[in-house]
Amino acid sequence: MSYTALYRKFRPQDFEDVKGQEHIVTTLKNQIKADRIGHAYLFCGTRGTGKTTIAKILARAVNCEHPVDGSPCNTCSTCRAIQEGTSMNVIEIDAASNNGVDNIREIREEVAYRPTEGRYKVYIIDEVHMLSTGAFNALLKTLEEPPSYVIFILATTEAHKIPITILSRCQRYDFRRITQDTIAARLTELMEKENNDVEEKAIRYIAKAADGSMRDALSLLDQCIAFYLGEKLTYEKVLENLGAVDTEIFSGMLRQILEGNTSGAIRTLEEIIIQGRELGQFVTDFIWYLRNLLLVKTSDNPEEAVDASAENLARMREECGMLEAETLMRYIRIFSELSNQIRYASQKRVLVEIALIKLCQPVMETNLDSLYDRVRVLEEKLEKGLIQPVPMTQVPEKLPYSAEGTYIPFREEIQETQPERKPEKAAPEDLQYVKKNWNSIIRETRGLLQQMLLESTPKYDGNTGEPVLYVEFRNFLAQTCIDNPQDAEILKEAIRKKIGKDVEVKMILKNSEAAKGPAGLAEISVDDLIRQNINMDITVENMDDE
pTM here? Predict the structure, then answer.
């Protein structure tokens, strides 16, 4: 006998086997026991929640010769004939392929004949929202006043597409998404019947990936078992088969994002791609991980809000203390926009990399929710001493204004604003000044160039001592800036605004065979470089970074 898929093999045969739809099952059983059966039912809900299954059970129950507590006995001749598909009393119609007026007219002609056996003739119309407007109009009169022996069961996943005239003639039942716990318990029960060894953590992940659909869960489980036939199905094997990523990877990537480690986040993404993980699934799972973090951050009882082990919950609590809720919502927004774009994109990796760069460098965005993240980054740099706060100048007791309201500058201010004469040839000193004010020069740039300059080092050629500024990038993404001559001009202009002189700029990539600079490159030092090239002692005043 050929193999039968799990979702077909274990399809519920009575109301007691249906999981997660107790509110519908109880109502239908009570109607059958009290003989208060309606003439038209509308089953609405997402895929895999049991609409067609309950419709078939109801069709058997209303015709069963010996019903048991409102459920079919599945042993009488009527029940067996319906199960085998040989009964003329139950007619299943796929409205997706039979959606014309002529198909509905055939139903109207058939309802005139009584069932050959059993009490009711049941019409199950699946995907009823696919019927044309003319077909719906043809169905109206029959649906409103059918013969006493006819029952219509309409099933749909998109109830908003059904005309209100049809809705008002039916008893509507909304099928809920099945909870993760219910799906996991059902899968565990079925695996015990099948004598398959499956790890509990693997069952939990499949139940989460099913997104409320029991059929999807059984299909995913069937797929994983087939791939590792005869072996124990573990959590790692499920991740490998479904192309998913472990939560520890998400945790590590989030910490790299909080540190602003763009290159580290890109490397982690590259490892994920090399392992063969699917980027769309990665984006979806990362959004889910961020959502769980937000729940832990904002809930009084995170144990009830998030389904996670004690170890994962402790790690998530630690990460929640490292960032604010506004920052989490910004991350979720960026990746939610990405999930819509990546579905039909040809360059999925590039889109994911851009999203990660946005998360690592909030300065690239100017909207409100990115300001919280930018403030967080600045506060962390201040705590680590990477940025020196500018001391507040003393405010004079008497403001220097004339009687006419004209501002009179102090003598000291006039002296400070006088431009200092710079030597005609002081290239080492100029490079030193560029080195000391590198951060303020970077702030004059924008976009990817600014992002790459934050991870660069200004250097000079120690062999020649020429006034050439070599900018050595450490991030391989900077190759785009190196290849773009406009970026070099932007950097030159930023330096010109700072020192008032033109400096020749050459941008190179560290450890790159195609873009190596001179062999004598060294980081710009201070007085000894000046003495070496000018042969005299010069005292260089400390110039604080702006």
Answer: 0.57
